[in-house]
Predict the structure.
Amino acid sequence: MGDKLIKEEKFKNFINGKWTEPTSGQYTDVINPANLETLVQVPLSSIRDVEIATQAAKIAQKKWALVPAPQRAEVLYRVGLIMKERKESLSQLLTMENGKVIEEARGEVQEGIDMAFYMAGEGRRLFGQTTPSELKDKFAMSVRAPVGVVGIITPWNFPIAIATWKSFPAVVAGNAVVWKPATETPIMAFELAKIFEEAGLPKGVMNVVFGAGSTVGEAMIEQEDIRVISFTGSNEVGRNIAGKCGQRLKKVSLEMGGKNAVIVMDDADLSLAVEGILWSAYGTSGQRCTACSRVIVHESVKEQLEGRLLNEIAKLTIGNGLDESIKVGPIINQDGLDKIKRYIQVGKQEGAKLLTGGYVMENGEHARGHYFAPTLFTDVTSDMRIAQEEIFGPVVSLLSVSSLDEAIEINNSVEYGLSSSIFTRDVNQVFAAQRDLDTGIVYVNAGTTGAEIHLPFGGTKGTGNGHRDSGVAALDVFTEWKAIYVDFSGKLQRAQIDVE
Ligand code: UN1
């Protein structure tokens, strides 16, 4: 069924409004992780392709910035309408290239649609500030100015949503974009570029350069005309990008993962907590930056929670996400699977107790595909690597505590600070926790996933470098504040000196 949705077998880059072959002439295969079938071929672009795209973007941006923002926003509005019309086919394609189950794929496409309409609204706001001047007959204001050409680098785990979090604010603010999508998930990039084209975005404002490894990303950093790099992906790659951008005084926005915990207090609604943990830990096979990979439970309800979780985990259906009855899809690729396997060994060696899962599923319907059994470790202590490092798979570590203070201390004792959650009915604990949990996102009585696009998305510490995706905060990444002083006194007035 789904294969008919794929219209091109060999993708091209989208540069200056034209579908262009990579100058290298080289391609690589893109594999469906649910059945290992080849879906499409994707260009392996070179530095030259990035140069061409950047120059096209530079020229296009100059004109685009002069289009009134409400008109720029109308393009995004049309993008949103087309995405809405194609929601089902986009979702199926997303499931095929990424593996996430169809219900979640629909949710992700919806995030993109929401982002389009939200950012279209920004076209009529893009608020600046007016500020009194210290001098008479002088007017002062600050406005958001586009930065010019921006580079965005997006991951495979949310190939369309994250692309919209970055490209939509960039475009509405008057920038042009050079976009390097993840090698594993080019179909969403291809579809989104087509939608931009159909919506009437002028040529050169959005350019897609496909690639693998670091060639395209590094070439983007080297381009003087690319003034901002916005990246979501691994910590290692993000730190490398930050170093290179730092040397070049290039603004960089990083979002690099999490080690998110659900705290379950002794007064929690346990059924709700189980549902929240299940959804945020095993949904997307744990391959979300926001995925729950630690459960910090009050010792008095530990055994009860373990029992209930085991019951529910046993009911999870694992397989090809196009089948509506499947709850957990495959892992993206062999490397992802190998990494998870290594962490299972680490957990066992560290003395954690494996309650369920911990193995690659290789029999029957799972023989062709990258499937990993939903896994629960208990008796984990916070110093163990499985409780500290991001695994990016369906693996949960359960740790027990005797107080809220201890739970918060453990929550905050990891390198990352993206998302956290607490299940309790005690209003005092709720307010204490929302203040003390050191993460960019805090949930009360819900799991660690499910951020809405009109709020800031990002985290503290090793999760990023202080910037946020989506929400109005995303505009800070893609605009520069410009201070403007208009003196209508008719004489030279010197600030700080000619003040009466
Ligand atoms: C990610 O995993 O990088 O909050 C993005 C969520 C989704 C986005 C996750 N809305 O889980």
